[in-house]
Each structure stands twice: as C-alpha cells, then as structure tokens.
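Researcher: I need the complex structure. Ligand is iron/sulfur cluster. Inputs:
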Amino acid sequence: MGTMLASPAFARTIAGLPWSPAQTSTPQSLVGQHFLTAAEKHCLDALTGRLIPSDEYGPGAPEAGVTTFIDRQLAGFFGRGDRWYMQAPFRDGIPGQGYQSEHAPAQLYRRALASLDAFCRATFGGRLYAELETEAQDELLRQMEAGDLSLEGVSAETFFGLLWENTIEGFFCDPLYGGNRDMVGWKLVGFPGARYDYRDVLDHNGAPVRLEPVGLMGGPQWRVD
Amino acid sequence: MPRKLPETDVVLVGFGWTAAILAQELTQAGLRVLALERGGWRDTPTHFPPTVAPDELRFYWRKEMFQDNARETLTFRNNTGQMALPMRRWGSFLPGEGVGGAGVHWNGQTYRFLPSDFEAASHNVKRYGPLADGLTVQDYGVTYDELEPHFDRFEKLCGIGGVAGNLNGDIQASGNRFEGWRSSNYPNPPMEMTFAQHRFAEAAQALGHRPYPAPSANMSRPYVNPLGVQLGPCSYCGFCEKYGCGNYSKASPQTTILPVLMQHPNFTLKTHNEVLHITRDSTGRRATGVVHVDLEGETYEQPAQIVILCAYQLHNTRLMMLSGIGEIYDPRTGEGLLGKNYCYQVVSSVDVFYEDKFTNQFAGAGALGMMIDEFNGDNFDHAGLGFIGGGYIACWTTNARPIETHRTPEGTPEWGSAWKKAVAENFLKSTSISTHGASMAHAANHLDLDPTYKDVHGRPLMRMTYDFTANDRAMTAHLTEQARRIGERMGGREIRVKPRQGPYDSMPYQTTHNTGGTIMGSNPANSVVNRYLQSWEVPNLFVMGAGVFPQNAGYNPTGTVAALTYWAAEAIKTRYLRDPGPLVRI
Ligand SMILES: Cc1cc2nc3c(=O)[nH]c(=O)nc-3n(C[C@H](O)[C@H](O)[C@H](O)COP(=O)(O)OP(=O)(O)OC[C@H]3O[C@@H](n4cnc5c(N)ncnc54)[C@H](O)[C@@H]3O)c2cc1C
Ligand code: SF4
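Model: Output:
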C-alpha cells in the first residue's frame, strides 16, 4: 500500500465498530523533504513564474511557493509514482490514453529540467532557461505545450502537461503542502478555503460574499517556510 | 496452497454500497454474512472529519480514497485497431476502495430510472422502428413497477430530499412530471437552492420547460432513517463528490447502515483482503466460495453457500473473467456475453459568466441543483433526430475547489498573465449547466482481458475498448444545444459551450458511471445474469452493480443499482433460501 497512508495498513477481521480515539488520519505535509537541486529549483522558478506570473493582480507561482510545493511532492510518494501503474512495456499512446512515460514524476522532472537547460545553453549562447528574456521563455513553453520542442530523453509535451498540473496544484492547494503561501492563490480568486459551513450565505442572491480564507492549519497569518 | 477457512452462509466480495445493503438484508434474514474488502476500514471521525476532509490535493488529486492504481488498473483503447495501454493513473472515472466503496465519496444525486429505460429496446422499436446498425440495446428483464418498492426503500434509507412529480399517478406541478409513479413522496424536502439554480430555473421556465429540484442524498434537514441511524443537516461545505462528508450529512454505507450492521452478531468484515477468484465444484455449476489474499500475501480459501459479487461494475466483470465463468465477448463474432455492452455516460456543459453577479459557488453541495427532464429518455419525440435516448440538463453548484474548477471565457489563453486575470475575474462569478446523457450499447464497445499487462499478482488487467457511438454523439449534440439555449437566457455576460466531441478520452474526469459487462436479461442467450441478478450458469452466484445494466440511461446509476440490490435480496430471502436453485427456469 502507499506510504501516504497516515495509519499503517494491515488486514484485519472486524466485528463491531472499530473506532478508537485520537486516530485521526492527518495529512502529510512533507515539510523538510527535498528532491530538487538548487539548479533545478532555479529553472522551475522561472518556468512556473511564466505560467502564473507575478503581476498587477498579485503574486505569481514562485512567490506562492509552488517550487517548494513541487520539491516536496517529488520527494514523496507522488514523485516516486508509488500510486501509479508503472509496469512495462512503455509505448507512446494516443492522447486519450494519458501519461505513458516510463519515468515517474520525479525522474521526469529531473530529465526534462536538465534537457531544457542543455537545450538553452546550446541554442542561446550558453544561457540557462532562467536567464532568457521572458518572451523567449514563453516561446519555449508554447513549443513544449504543442509538442514542437524536442528534448533529449523526454517528451516535452508530457513534461509540460505535468508541470502545468503541478503548478496549479501548488498555487491553489492547502498551504500546509508548502504552496499557496499566505493563501495568495485563494485570495486571488476569492476562495474561502476549508470553512465547511456556508448555510448562512446560501441566499446571497448574486451579491458578493467576502470571507477571509481559512486553511486546515488555521488562518491566513499562518505560514510555512 | 490457500489456507481453508470455516464455511459461511454468504460471502460478499467488496464492501461498498451494494454489499452494505445486502449484508443488512441477509443478516436480518438470519444468515451468517462475511464481507471481504480489499481496502481498509473507514469511518467519519477518523478518516474525514471536518478538520481533515476539505483537502483538495490529498483527496482528489492524490486520490487517497480511490483504488490503488499501482496494484491494478485497466488498459484502454478507443477501438480494436489500437493497442490498449494501461491507465497509469485514474482520470475519467474513479473506482472506490475501502469500506463504503465509492459510496463514501459520491455526490448523492439519486434517481430512479424512467419506466421506459428498463424497456429501452422494445419501447424504442415499437415507437421508432428497428434499432440503428450496431446497437445492441436490450430490455432489462425487470420493470419499473416491480422495482418501485425497492426504489422507495433506498430513498428512505438515505433520506433523499426532493419533490414528487408523480404520486401514485397524480402529477405534481413542482416535481418531475416525467418520473415513474411513486408510492410515497421523498422522505425529505429538497435542498435550499442558491443563485445559479434560481437563474437556471427562470431561464428553463421561460423556454417552456419544467425545472425541478434534483433529488439529493445530502441532507436538507436532520433525519433518522428506518434503521434508526441519524444523519445531520448538510452545511453546503463544497467538498462533497470525491470527498468523505465530515458532518454525517451525505448518505453513505457509513451514515445509513454500518452503525447497525456492524453490531449484528451474524456479520463479519475482513478488510485488506482481496478476492482473487470464485471457486467452483467439479460440475462447474456450483460456486464453493472464493480465494482471497491479505496484504502479507497469505492466501485463503473461504467456502460459502452463496457468493455475491459487490466489487463495482469493473471488478465484478473482471472477477467473472478471471474465474472463467462464462464466455468473454468477441466483437468479431458477436459470441460471448461477459464484457458485452460496456457503456458509460455522455456528458457536456455550458459555462455561464456574469459581469456583476456573484455565484459564490464555493457554497455548494454534491447534489445541489435544479434540472429538467424534457430531453431525457423518451420524454420527447425522437422522430427524425437520428438517435434514441437522452439525458437530463442541470445546473449544479458543486465542484468549485480551485485546483479542479477555474472556468475561463472563450478565447482565454491556457496560462500566463491573461489566464490568471481571467481566473481571478470569473471564479466567483460563473456557473455551469451540465448535460448528463445516456450511453447506448454498441457491438464495438466491450471489456475483455488484456494480453500484455498484468496486476500486482501477475494476472491480466481488464481491457476496455470504448468510444462514443454515432447515436450518442447525435444525442449529446442535441442536449448541448438545449443547454446552450438555457445558458443564453441566464442573464450572464457570456457563455462558453463545451460540447462532447472527438474520441472518448480516458483522462479528464467525466463520471464514475461505468455500466455493462455482466448484463441482465430474459434468457441465458442474451445475458450473464437473470432478472434477479443471479448467474445463469452458477445459480448460487449473484452479481450486483451497474454491470447488469444492458445499457446506461440518462440518470446517475446508484438509485437503480440500489433498487436492483434490494430486489435481488428479496428474491434470495423469500425464494432462493427455500429452494436453492435457478430463480428463472427456461
Ligand atoms: C466521485 C464520484 C461521484 C459519484 N456520484 C454519484 C452520484 O451523484 N449519483 C450516483 O448515482 N452515483 C454516483 N457515483 C457512483 C456510485 O458511487 C456507485 O454507483 C456506487 O458506489 C456503486 O456501488 P457498488 O457497491 O457497485 O461499488 P462500490 O461502492 O464502489 O464498492 C465496491 C467495493 O468493492 C471493493 N473491491 C473491488 N474489487 C475487490 C476485490 N477483488 N476483492 C475485495 N474487494 C474488492 C472496492 O474496494 C470497493 O470498496 C459516484 C462515484 C464517484 C467515484
Ligand atoms: S456538501 Fe453537505 S453532504 Fe456534501 S460533504 Fe459537504 S456537508 Fe456533507
């Protein structure tokens, strides 16, 4: 079973209600766990900063802690693909068959980030992706998205898909996972988070309902470093 | 060699919605019942209290309560000309795992199929002439009238909130006038609607439709069910489908049956025990029990008088295949019945964006919606339309967790500053109309065993060959157009039509409404199980779940799945136990 499970899994025979106190299945924040190197984080900050930039609407992905989030996720069961079916043979499929890379997410990031920086160095006079002008960075992202960029050893399109998915996750997840720092993602859109009771506001009839967001660990003043 | 265990009267394979119902019914009848569930124990205060449940990353995106893909998945292709590849992670549907099955994290949209849905072949042939080429649509072999008392039981078990449309034949103005007759009203009033539903209802009404509140298993008020189990009022928390409910407000096995069942001396549950196959005697006509394996890899032989598959449509079908009971369907010859008539649900949507109105869609619930049935089933004249079947059109306020739902108007770039701006501007000011269409059985769509890929035990994965049919494409285009017409009248700044086009894609979430594969019917030449969900080939084996649907209807399945389960339980209790053997003789 996945190591994600808070309580250990074991087979058992149950008669009666087996509830016992103080066994709440708490989330795993993966605080302090790392997978990425400094160079990889640098590249990832640049990539996610173009996907969700800092601008007049508020902080972008790097400021929201998306790189921290991805770093922790890649260090855990997600990065290892522990809950994905990763048996061979691996073949390129049609889009409707989804992810078919032989690399679990952590290894896919590792290869893609290295190949992207190698490509940039070779093409842009020794500069890394993070050192390019934003227009050039955007153009490379567009090419990856469209499958028009060939990166050594990985599908740029598959990487783009996963990167964009994880960037959105890191921008909007509960802050306990290291992303959505200070709830900037939730504040940007007006999502009140984990409040769990909206009976009082149901008859808003189209008027704004402004509620400060609340996360699983508390209010917006709470922060993860 | 598996270790042989003492015999039980009934073994239930899986412990989700259908198993919980059967366990309650059969222990009450005095039988010793054992349920084998491959996932773990789950209860509200431990696994999804309000301080834990509203976690979008953990429960939806990291799929904590869904089936572990690493151990077993499906392979998928659109047609036999392609190579099926494994779904390396779940997407389009999310099979449940653990006590309560998908009943823990469903929405609670709870319907009775229309009377004509049960007679989809004969009804449509009579009205419109022969079925189109390739359609393998069949009658269920059981009628709405026969199932009515069983629908009623499930609605009362769950405390469904709604408004009757047809009380014993009397049409009620504010309910669904197309529904089959009901012997009593819903046990609870409908949920409290919010802004988007009001706008949808007004627009639908202006077009001459009759909107009605969707029947909901999210409690509209405190409720004590007939087993004496108490449910609390829904707080419209917005973390409903794909999440467990922390408030005891969503009907699930945990909140309706388990507190009573688990205390019954005749009932035993074994968790983290996966059933590998059904065993039979030398005649092959009698099931002797099942073989199961625990997490440590220890295998056991569990003898039983009656074996009942409750492992969800996909796994029921695969377990039949792995046990060698029945012939697997071959689309080239049309021979074989196991895996035949795999169907799904054909959905589309129309987003509505407001300029200065707030939908505040974070305040919602899994089954909070207004809907119309004018284009469902055969509620409208299909002459000249080129398809049979239909679906409902609804405006739900649910799903508005921001990783999953961040609607943007037509023409918005997919990322970057412009995307961010559009998401920021529209998150609180948008809603969506869904069309939820039937899926008609076709000779080309089927399930069988994959020749290449294996599960954690080294056994073949099931292979799904599926694409939308010409019938269903015409159906969904028609429904989407009706939804567009409603959306345009909801007073928004603009709409965005999201039709169902192109080949079926196994990745974006659509519904967990997989049907067929172990279909029911009138005789052993057209079905795997008879009208009592009893195997034709092995009479002490029963198969529950939506796998018995010969084709899928426009509604969500669970109301009908549960009614069929109660119906089968009654046949077992009142007839099978007295005279064990085939309940239908041909
Ligand atoms: C997100 C979501 C939303 C949904 N919303 C709705 C809705 O609004 N309305 C509606 O009508 N339906 C809805 N459904 C569908 C509904 O949940 C199912 O129809 C219902 O749970 C089916 O009951 P079941 O008993 O057949 O299967 P389940 O309830 O899924 O139970 C099957 C159990 O069998 C176990 N199992 C499988 N294989 C084995 C094995 N080999 N050995 C031992 N155990 C095994 C599984 O672990 C699981 O616990 C939804 C489903 C999902 C996932
Ligand atoms: S919306 Fe209601 S029923 Fe659904 S999980 Fe929240 S409180 Fe429970």
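Model: Summary of the prediction. The first helix of chain A runs from residue 38 to 51.
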